[in-house]
Specification:
The complex is a heterodimer of chains A (about 100) and B (about 260). In chain A, about 60% of the residues lie in helices and about 10% in strands. By secondary structure, chain A is mostly helical. Chain A has a three-stranded antiparallel β-sheet, with no helix packed on it. The termini of chain A are far apart. With about 260 residues, chain B is an all-alpha fold. Chain B has helices at about 20-35, 35-60, 70-75, 80-110, 120-145, 150-180, 195-225, 235-260. Chain B is globular, with a radius of gyration of 21 Å. The chains are: A mainly alpha (about 100), B mainly alpha (about 260).
């Protein structure tokens, strides 16, 4: 259970003796979304732009899963459940897309 | 979070027949989809009765964590939370298959629209931000009830619900505009763009929209339960579980937004 809440605004919530930076994560998600929308200003080649966008999306998803879905605070083995499902389907996706790319 | 709860709440865990009724109704409805409309109607009826009975029971019950007969400190993840994560694993497979299949079609057939050529990227960027805001309000709702602050719980749950409705409203507006003004239909696309572009667009965003709709309904129920004062500092696992689903919907959209709108 949460022992304390350091700020009524919810900027950082302490629970289980750990700080939970919900607002900082929110700011990061907003900033990255803004960057994604204006990715053109970086002047990257198309392939690099695609890779950058995928990396940014993966980073955003990781932030949500780690802090908002609390995977960071759960037992380590729990992450194997979503990752296991993802890994199984990636086999299908690589089988579908792979031959076209090579 | 619910750690630390549970070992003493084993006796409060109730068995119920309603999930079985819901599953039975869904099974009849699925068979009815391919067999007969009467069976489909009967399945839907059983399903709705099951959901009604389940909700009627649930709204009167405390929302305690159930860890079985082992101490919560040993198990650490409650039975219901584990079940939700297993469910989310199947959802990850479902979305990855749909997104991956659509991307494979795109790569193999070509002639796809460029970002912003047909779709309204700034509007959807705003919608993405709305969904991110809803994730913040959701996690703040959980943090509030962990502190025992029921007033902020109600406020944040209601905000999450309203943000979800706003997301769906903007998506509905976008669909109407695309379908009737831009000519992006289920089987066709404007300007010589591959017709599969429309099919895969509506498939991916539609499936996600259906998930958001489910989340909004769940949020409405959780909000109602919160306003009835059914969640406390000790009994609030449902808030965490509905939040897990809501954040997953956000994660799915993060990838969809990038792949469908930006690439």
């Amino acid at each position: 259970m949460a022992e304390t809440a350091t700020a009524a605004t919810g900027a950082v919530v302490e629970a289980h003796g750990r700080k939970r930076p919900y607002l900082i994560v929110f700011a990061a998600l907003g900033f990255v979304t803004l960057l994604e929308l204006n990715i053109g200003i970086l002047g990257l080649a198309h392939a690099h732009q695609v890779i950058t966008l995928i990396v940014l999306a993966t980073g955003k998803a990781a932030l949500v899963a780690a802090y908002y879905m609390h995977l960071r605070y759960e037992p380590r083995w729990l992450i194997l459940i979503p990752l296991g499902g993802f890994a199984m389907v990636m086999v299908l996706v690589i089988a579908l897309v792979g031959p076209t790319l090579t | 979070m619910s750690e630390g709860e549970g070992a003493g709440h084993v006796e409060e865990h109730h068995t119920t027949i309603w999930p079985l009724v819901v599953g039975f109704g869904a099974a009849i409805a699925y068979v009815g989809l391919v067999a007969s409309l009467t069976l489909l109607g009967l399945g839907i009826l059983v399903f709705v009765v099951g959901v009604g009975g389940w909700l009627r029971d649930d709204i009167r019950s405390p929302s305690t964590s159930f860890f079985g007969h082992l101490p919560a400190a040993v198990v650490r993840v409650s039975a219901r939370k584990l079940a939700v994560w297993l469910f989310l694993a199947t959802e990850i497979m479902f979305f990855t298959a749909i997104i991956g299949g659509s991307y494979a079609l795109r790569v193999k057939t070509g002639n796809w629209a460029q970002p912003g050529e047909i779709l309204n990227v700034p509007l959807t960027g705003l919608n993405t931000f709305i969904l991110i805001c809803s994730s913040l309000t959701m996690v703040e709702a959980l943090a509030a009830i962990e502190r025992g602050d029921t007033r902020r719980l109600r406020m944040f749950l209601l905000a999450t619900f309203l943000l979800g409705v706003t997301f769906l409203s903007i998506q509905a507006y976008e669909y109407v505009k695309l379908y009737f003004t831009e000519g992006l239909t289920f089987m066709g696309a404007p300007g010589g763009v591959n017709p599969l572009y429309g099919s895969t667009f509506y498939l991916q965003t539609g499936v996600h929209g259906a998930h958001v709709t489910g989340g909004v309904l769940a949020m409405a129920y959780a909000t109602l339960k919160a306003f009835k004062g059914r969640f406390t500092k000790e009994n609030h696992e449902a808030v965490e579980l509905v939040g897990l689903y809501w954040h997953f919907v956000d994660v799915a959209w993060i990838f969809l937004f990038t792949i469908v709108y930006l690439i």
